[in-house]
Amino acid sequence: MKVLIVVDMQTDFVDGALGTAEAVAIVPNVKARIEKANAEGVKVIFTRDTHFENYMETQEGRNLPVPHCIKGTDGWQIVPELTALTEGCQIIDKPTFGSVVLGQMLCDLNAEEAIEEITLIGLCTDICVISNAMIAKANLTEVPVAVEEACCAGVTPATHTQALEAMKMCQIAVR
Q1: Domain containing residue 121
Q2: Which residues contact 146 (CB under 8 A, 6 or more apart)?
Q3: How many domains does the chain contain in total?
Q4: Rounded to an integer, what distance in angstroms lies between the CA atom of residue 24 and that of residue 7?
Q5: Beta carbons within 8 Å of 57's beta carbon, 6+ residues apart
């Protein structure tokens, strides 16, 4: 089995509170990649950054004082261009950058049927994509993990590139 993880393609990260032109630009690539995965029978899992009204009181909120992805808001939703593609897929709400739940889910899936490859796409390369790629690699050390550069964007182009280089050093393929 192959797995595609779509990380945090939410309104607040694309064109909302923390949106960037680079994030907007990858939406068509991400859509095409998910459609390709669906056509090939790849298991698709979405993650969704999920905060609550007390966000500003959390450690993350104190370090990044921009309320975003508050559960139930428009900014928390998967971008409209991808909403229909979430049907039938698992969506993991994660309270922080990396998801322990995702790591366990990957281990459980691998126990049921060997995972041949894990690919990650989405936002932000330098925060949540790298965190979840490292979790996947740490949990399934012998499974190839890859990130698709054209389907990712970082907080800035420079930190996007730095994150890709860091992942390469940890034996995560960058395509």
Answers
A1: 2-174
A2: 117, 118, 119, 120, 172, 173, 174, 175
A3: 1
A4: 14
A5: none
**How many Cβ atoms sit within 10 Å of the Cβ of residue 35?**
12
Paired tokens of 73: 């808001």
Residues in the chain: 175
CATH of the domain at 164: 3.40.50.850
The single-letter code of the amino acid at 49 is: D
Q: How confident is the model at residue 72 (pLDDT cuts 50, 70, 90)?
A: very high
Residue 7's SS3 state is strand
Task: State the Cα–Cα distance between residues 64 and 22, nearest whole angstrom.
Answer: 20
Distance CA 142, CA 39 (A): 26
Task: For residues 35 and 47, give the distance between their C-alpha atoms in angstroms, rounded to a whole number.
Answer: 17
- Whole-angstrom Cα distance, residue 98 to residue 102? 8
As beta bridge partners, residue 6 has 46, 121
Q: What does the pLDDT read at residue 134?
A: 98
In tens, the pLDDT along 116-158 reads 999 999 999 999 999 999 999 999 999 999 999 999 999 999 9
